[in-house]
Structures are given as C-alpha cells and as structure tokens.
User: Fold this.
Amino acid sequence: MAFYFEDNFLYCDGIRVKEIQSRVGVSPFYLYSGEQIEGNYLAYTQALAEIPSQVSYAIKANNNLHILKLLHSLGCWATLVSGNELRLALAAGFEPDQLIFNGNGKTISEITLAIQRGVMINIDSFFDLDHIQTVAEHTNRRARVLLRIAPDLDVTVHPYLSTGLKETKFGLPISQIPRMTTLLARSNHLDLVGIHCHLGSTIDTVHVFQETMAIMARHFTEIRSQGFPLQYINLGGGLGINYRHDQSQHPSPGDLIAAVRAEIPTDSTLIIEPGRSLIGNAGILVCRVIGVKRNVNRSFIVVDGSMAELIRPSLYQAFHYIAFSEPVTGPVEVFDIVGPVCESADFLGKKRRLATPPEGTCITIFDAGAYGRAMSSNYNARMKPAEFLVADEVLHQIRREERFEDYLNLFEPNEDHI
Ligand code: LLP
Assistant:
C-alpha cells in the first residue's frame, strides 16, 4: 500500500505526510505515490499480458509532465483531448505514434498539429471528418483515424460522467455509421484503422464493458468486411475506484479485462484508455485545518483546501474519503469539511464523523490524483497548488505552486486598445 496509516500517522511510500507538510512549506498541496502509479499500471499490463493490446493513459485526468514521463517510461501511450495536451505528451517524450487525439470539437489548428506530427485521430462527427479530410489534403499527408461510436448503453453514474448514450455530444450514433464509412471509403487521405468508444466514468461494474465490447466487436467485423484494414478496437476508459474506502468489491483492471476478453475480435489490438484507475488513488490533497466552527445544527471543519483545488465534490457531489494525517484526540462529532471559498458549494466532504481537530492539524483528502489538480481553478484569486511525488522513498517537487506574481504577469502592463 502506497498510502497507509501507522500509529494514526499517514505515510506515503514510507514518508510521514505530516513531515512532508512541514518540509514543503506550502499548503494545500498535491502529493503522489510513484509506487501506486506503477502498481496501477502493472495491474493493467498483467491483465492484458496475453492479449495484443495497449494501455493509453487519458492525460486529462492528470497532466503533470513528470507523471506523464513516468507513465511513458512504463510503456504507456497517451490519449489527448487538446492541442496543448498533444504538446505536453511530446514534451514528456511520447512518440507521435503512441498518441491518440480525441475530442468532439477539435479545431483546424489542433488537427493540423496532429496530422503534421502523424498522430492518430478519432473522428467524432461529420464536420470533424470534413475538417480532418481538408487538413490532410492541404498538408498533403495521410492521416490514420479511428471512428468514435456512441454504443447507446446506459451506465449508472452521475449524468455529467455518462458519455456513451445516443443523446451524448460525443461520437457517432450507430445509425450513422454506414454514411460515415461510405464517405471514408472515398477518401484518399484518411486510413480508417480502428473504432473507439467511451461509455463514461466512475463505472463500478464490468458487465456493461462486456456488453459494449460485444457491440463494438460486431461493428469492427462489419466495417472490416467492407475492406477497411481495421486494427484497433479502443474501449475507452471509465473504470471506477473505491472512493469510499469501504469493503465493497470494486472491479479491478483484471476483472474488466476478464469480462471483455472473450468478445475481442481476432487479429485486433485492444486499446484501453484509463485515467482515474491509473492515477486516482495515487494522489492526495494535503490541507491544514484553519478552524472549527459550530452553527445551529451544523459543525464545520474549515480547511485551507477548497473547490478551487478539488472541484469534484462540488461539481459531481463526488465522495472523497477524508482523514487526519496525524493523531487527533478531540471529541468526535459530525462535521462538514469546507474550504474558504466564498460559495456554499465549496465543500470537500459532508457529514463526516471525525474527532475535533486543533488548528493547524494536517488533514488529507484521498483519491484526488485524477481530475484534482487538472480541474483546479483560480476562483477567489487562489493560486493553483504545488505537486510532489514520492519515488523510491525520495520526495520530489514535480510542479511548483502558482504565485501571485505569475498571476499578475498575465495582465497587460498598460490598458492598450485592442
Ligand atoms: N477516454 C476518453 C475518450 C475519455 O473521454 C475519458 C474521460 C477517458 C478515456 C478516461 O476516463 P477515466 O478512466 O478517467 O474514467 N472530471 C470527471 C471525469 C470526466 C472524464 C471524461 N472522460 C471526474 O472528475 O470524475
């Protein structure tokens, strides 16, 4: 276990988190366990060992350059959703042919960058096809493309996290596939090399992945029979993690792969695009208690982290396990854990039974490695937090905190007219 408690102190890969907090001198901050990242990646590669396959990390979950380098060094590819994610991936050392550029609103300049570099592109719609085709023609290059399909399967997740229904803004409804393949057959610049889908996120059962694979396999075989040299069947990401730290049986990458295995078409390469299940439980948000306050019927632990650093609880009513990182012996009560942001939606956890902490106590929000720092904002003029990584029991700073000078520098020195 990369994060564990001993004598009520929290440790990250052998180092006390409280001690890290004292050493780094900033708060709040993100802390990652290299051991956990590697373990999560290994869980996928072991499950995929006998299957022609590739893990492609969804960079949006956490785009820290050093984490990208680490995953690249392990053999991972990367799935991108913007031109800047593409640039980041290249900066981290990924080769263009290890990248998949996905998205429902890729701009011409982003597509141009992808095609010039030889990155594989997901076609999301008819206008997207048009744009990709036009850029390929103008730059006189061939582009390898995947077709993103919306398999129209419901997953029981927060509505914001569902992406595979036919009402979704992502991908092509099944009924439109024939029209798309007719157009692709006429293209002399695009090579259709596979199909893609992504059902949604925080999925806690593997049954739906099996159903999806069965549907995707049918389309794969059908499209291939039309003469397209399909190789990749890309199942997207979406596997949930145990945010509640309870005894419930959460499917592992092994369970996911076991569920889809029998449906994989012959002579195909399976791509799987995890974000959360690679990095989610490998990161924590470490905060300090500012104070404790009791209003009528409600008690609050006010901490120095907020929705600006971790928006998941406010945006998706997401549950993150919260615990003190050091022994606390005050009377136990039910608290809401809230930040200083001027907004009632600013909470990190509600109705948690915790001991009453003294001011300054080190408190940790768990499973914040995915969609934590990546979705942070400057709301209330808060500066984005620093990030640290423990690798081989050594603490590394992998991104410094944003400073007020950085922020001020973005404003033009004079009120120039545009
Ligand atoms: N592939 C595609 C095409 C995706 O759109 C996504 C995530 C992934 C892979 C990775 O999914 P994962 O394995 O991380 O579930 N901000 C939300 C999550 C949004 C995910 C969007 N797409 C959250 O904090 O839960």
Q: What stands out?
A: The chain has twelve helices and 21 strands. The chain has two domains: 3-31+281-409, 34-275.
